[in-house]
Design brief:
Elements: E1 38-48, E2 53-63, E3 66-71, E4 83-86, E5 91-94, E6 96-98, H1 113-125, E7 128-133, H2 141-151, E8 160-163, E9 167-169, H3 188-194, E10 196-198, H4 205-214, E11 219-223, H5 236-248, E12 252-256, H6 260-268, E13 273-275, H7 284-293, E14 296-298, H8 301-311, H9 319-324, H10 327-332, H11 344-364, H12 383-394, H13 399-413, E15 431-434, E16 448-453, E17 456-458
Parallel strand pairs: 1-4, 1-5, 6-7, 7-8, 9-10, 11-12, 12-13, 13-14
Antiparallel strand pairs: 1-2, 2-3, 5-15, 15-16, 16-17
Length: about 475
């Protein structure tokens, strides 16, 4: 099925300004090394996602910011331990990862620097310990570098920050003409402030990628989007050049798409991940090729769900969202009725298509990572990861598969699977302790007892 409107996805109504980051009074030692500090968690049941089972209780020792030992109960000495946590009757999983998270509260209208700082802490309070910021909305290379610096200090409570810096698109393409409504020739500085770089055949691609490397980006995001022929898009030649230059610098490339042919072009030229599902059926041949090439699929069901809710005339009523989402964000959406869908029937039909695409991708063996497109309307930091997992299960995936996408899948997507996404000795101590087993019911990820972020205990969590 083809609709006149394309790309219900990224940046709809996203803030179009670069926020000047300010200092914050409340400090949190979230990423400062604590080599002499130890935490011992006793008798905790470990949720083994790869085998879809719960491992009988173990003791877990954390030294500084790393898991240093996992052993049978009682076999690790408690002498000299700084913090002792009883895990009896509780469950532990890796920290959650959102690989498509713009920095903002998910409401509409102007957001201040304080709003974005609070959004960062909101991720953590919901158990999200790592995010990937994919450009746009002011998210250029310098913006990303500043957030990384602030979040690696004792200044703010925030997840580990990864990102692409400014996204790479074609002149006059998405989101330049489609969302920002720019026409004609636009100065590159204006686009950069908005979080985008427009390239053409004269662009020195290697120099562009090198400059991004110098500012510490962790991946490259490209836009393959023509709004059903209404705007220009990156040529296959430019896709190839960007991918090759990025890979030469050790950077993965992720592509925003909205149509099956965009996906086919992306994987043909070696793109490492696909951002967003699409509103048409993805051919099995395309999904098979994604599986063979190990091209990651990030469906962002939460993004679509927000606009489907608008088409159905409903506002956020989930108690777990209301408990932790900024009231200003919820209030801003009360009278927000925009939806890209023209009817309830169309919205529900799209829901069926994107669910079926994800289910088939999983069955065929396409690797999955969880991303939500935070800061689109009704896509709230932290909460949306729990919502995304529930939507994935609704689409036919098992709770274990959804959880894998949110942990090990996200870590591999980021190229950080050697330190993130698992409960193993030597891995970063980003952990969630839950009151109930999430393999039995995906909603049990909402029974947070506490969060351990980089070896620091966060007790102020949002729990169902």
């Amino acid at each position: 099925m083809k609709y006149l409107r394309r790309s219900t996805s990224i940046y709809l109504l996203a803030p179009l300004f670069l926020v000047l980051l300010s200092s914050c009074d409340n400090s949190f030692n979230s990423h400062v090394s604590r080599e002499d500090t130890t935490i011992l968690i006793t008798d905790i049941s470990i949720v083994n996602l790869s085998d879809n089972e719960v491992i009988p209780p173990k003791d877990i020792l954390i030294t500084g910011d790393k898991i240093t030992e996992i052993a049978e109960p009682g076999s690790i000495s408690q002498a000299g331990t700084d913090t002792l946590i009883s895990g009896e009757g509780l469950f532990i999983i890796p920290g959650l990862i959102d690989v498509h998270a713009h920095i903002g509260n998910g409401g509409i209208g102007h957001q201040t620097a304080k709003d974005r700082e609070e959004a960062m802490s909101q991720f953590v309070h919901y158990g999200v310990t790592s995010i990937f910021v994919p450009g746009g909305g002011g998210g250029n290379d310098h913006y990303l570098s500043e957030w990384k610096s602030r979040c690696s200090s004792a200044e703010l409570l925030c997840p580990e920050v990864y990102g692409s810096g400014a996204l790479i698109t074609a002149p006059g393409s998405h989101p330049i003409a489609t969302i920002w409504n720019f026409t004609g020739e636009i100065h590159e500085d204006i686009l950069y402030q908005r979080g985008a770089v427009a390239i053409d055949n004269n662009t020195h691609i290697d120099s562009l990628i090198q400059s991004k490397v110098n500012l510490g980006v962790d991946g490259i995001k490209i836009i393959i989007e023509d709004w059903a022929g209404e705007v220009p898009r990156l040529s296959n030649e430019l896709i190839d050049r960007v991918v090759q230059a990025s890979h030469n610098h050790g950077l993965r490339v992720f592509a925003h798409v909205s149509m099956p042919n965009h996906i086919a072009d992306a994987i043909a030229y070696g793109v490492d991940g696909i951002m967003h599902s699409v509103e048409d059926r993805i051919p099995d041949t395309t999904l098979i090729e994604m599986a063979q090439r190990e091209t990651y699929f990030v469906a962002t069901l939460s993004l679509y769900d927000g606009f489907i809710d608008r088409a159905l005339g409903s506002n956020e009523e989930e108690k777990y969202a209301i408990a932790g989402v900024a009231q200003s964000a919820l209030t801003s959406l009360k009278d927000f009725h925009f939806s890209p869908f023209r009817s309830e029937e169309e919205a529900l039909e799209v829901k069926d298509i994107i669910n079926e695409n994800l289910h088939r991708a999983s069955e065929i063996g396409v690797p999955l990572a969880l991303g939500t497109d935070v800061n689109n309307p009704s896509v709230f930091p932290g909460y949306s990861v729990h919502e995304e997992m529930a939507l994935m299960v609704e689409a036919g995936l098992s709770p274990a598969t959804a959880l894998e996408a949110a942990t090990t899948g996200g870590a591999t997507f980021l190229g950080e699977d050697h330190i993130l996404g698992r409960i193993e000795s030597g891995y970063e101590a980003d952990l969630l302790i839950l009151k109930s087993n999430p393999l039995e019911n995906i909603l049990h990820t909402r029974t947070l007892h506490l969060v351990i972020l980089n070896g620091n205990i966060v007790e102020d969590v949002v729990s169902h």
